[in-house]
Amino acid sequence: MAKLNDIIEVELGDITIKGFICSFHPRDITVEMTYPFNGLQRGLHIPLLGGNNINTFDGNYGLKTARSLLIELYADILHITDTL
């Protein structure tokens, strides 16, 4: 189950991306990268459509999402640095 301040580590090839969940609510999650870059954040929101309360970041989905957000953030940084 995902929760605030959970440490997240993702192996991507020969690099370990590290971060933590810096904001967590059932419908909102934000991660902050701590390695290889520090202080960058990315988040995601699940909109409430028609009173549907089924989809949340609780449980394994929150952890999976946190890992995905770190990978996306790292990929964006690599793209930006490659274009400079």
Which band does the percent of strand residues land in? Answer: 35-45%
Order of helices and strands: EEEEH
How far do the termini sit from each other?
39 Å
Q: Which parts are unreliable, with pLDDT below 50 for 5 consecutive residues or more?
A: none
Discrete helix count: 1
Average pLDDT for all residues: 91
> Could you tell me the radius of gyration in angstroms?
14 Å
Say what oligomer this is. single chain
Give helix % range: 25-40%
As for the number of domains, it is: 1
Broad structural category: alpha+beta
Instruction: Describe the sheet with the most strands.
Output: 4 strands, antiparallel
List how many beta strands DSSP finds. 4
The gross shape turns out to be globular
Order of strands, main sheet, comes to: 1-2-3-4
List the helices and strands and how they pair.
Blueprint: E1 7-12, E2 15-25, E3 28-35, E4 41-45, H1 60-83
Antiparallel strand pairs: 1-2, 2-3, 3-4
Summarize the structure.
The chain is an alpha+beta fold and 84 residues long. It has one helix spanning 60-83, and strands at residues 7-12, 15-25, 28-35, 41-45.
Description of the molecule:
- The protein has 84 residues and is α+β, with helices and mostly antiparallel strands.
- It has one domain (7-83).
- The protein is built from one helix and four strands.
- The termini are far apart.
Question: What labels would you give this structure?
Answer:
single chain; 84 residues; alpha+beta; 29% helix; globular
